[in-house]
Amino acid sequence: MFLTIITFLIVLSLLVFVHEFGHFWVARRFGLKPEEFGFGFPPRAWGIYRSKEGGWKTTRGNKEVKDAADTIYSVNWLPLGGFVKLGEDDIEETNNPNHFNNKPIWQRAAILLAGVTMNVVLAAVLISFGFMVGLPQATEGLSSSAKVSREKIQIIEILPDSPADEASLEIGDIILEINNNKFIKSEELQKYVAANTGRELVYKIESGGEMVEKRITPKIIEETQAGGIGVGIVESGIVRYPVHIAIWEGLRTTFLLTWFIIVAFYDLIKGLILGQGVSIELGGPVKIAQITGDAVRMGFAYLINFAALLSINLAIINAFPFPALDGGRILFLIIEKIKGSPVKKEVEAVFHNIGFALLMLLILLITYKDIARIWQ
Q1: For residue 234, which of 309, 183, 295, 193 has the smallest C-alpha distance?
Q2: pLDDT for 144-193, tens place per residue?
Q3: Which helix (H) or strand (E) holds 331?
Q4: Global model pTM greater than 0.70
Q5: C-alpha angle 26-32-33 in degrees, rounded to nearest 5
Q6: Is 339 helix (H, G, I), strand (E, B) or coil?
Q7: Domain 147-239 has what CATH class?
Q8: What does the pLDDT look like over 63-101, one tens digit per residue?
Q9: Among candidates 142, 128, 132, which has minimal Cα distance to 235?
Q10: What are the structural domain ranges in the chain?
Q11: Residue 36 C-alpha from the chain's centroid
């Protein structure tokens, strides 16, 4: 449990810090001098800055720094990512040409999009590195340059009310043996199960890094009209590529994953608007921590894969045009462009505060659901 919590905090901190660094780096490229760029969240533990008199100074605690000529670089007590103070929420007007609110709309939009972009870039780097050392992936249709190890048969779908569902198998489980028989090819496994329709079989399963035995009796599955236990399976393994190909595969996989997640997010929003309910399982911090723990137990390659997926999810959620998110702030820039003048900062602040409150409420509700699911 301790290792799970520490790993979860490290992964989350890395993703948030990289996101904020994207904002900071592009802001500096456009001549902005952010008030503060910090690792972790306040209260501030220690900071360093260049003073107006020249030379570098340090500061401790949360006291106001009045003689800073440039950005304060700080380390904060809550090690959960980072933050950058750009001044985008400042209500008072200023004539400073290098203030965020006085920059052209396209530059402000670029700064806001930089965090999302950095999360996608991080995912591409992680996946490319993963393909260099080996990542879990379906082995069907791989190029000849791929090297595959630890081949296995993995469950990717479970039909409701099927023998597999009744036996509490889960998506991602690995079928190690059936009646002491090992299988590498999914077709051979399916033929064996179909030939034993109506007979109890002993499945040896790897689930969440643990080995378990399940006694399951295959039956005729209505959807396929064939004998089985009601699962979709795929041949998978640890796939590794030469460095130059790993980079290309990392970029290609990142693009595909980003597209799939966007489509899933669209379906989620569409279902909510049309009153069709939520067809995918939402997870909050508790669920993410659980999955992090599973990834830690399954190995480094799985942790890299999970961190990349989480980074893409963070990017897509932040790009959504909802108040308090980066996408919501960009929406106000679009409104400014259309009407020819900015929305009053007081009005915009109200929308962002309401949006933030709603997001916190959603996170609390999802967290409550996650905890309730654990207790059940």
Answers
A1: 183
A2: 788 888 888 888 888 888 899 889 888 878 899 999 998 888 888 999 99
A3: helix 326-339
A4: yes
A5: 110
A6: helix
A7: mainly beta
A8: 888 888 888 999 999 877 888 988 766 666 667 777 888
A9: 142
A10: 147-239
A11: 26
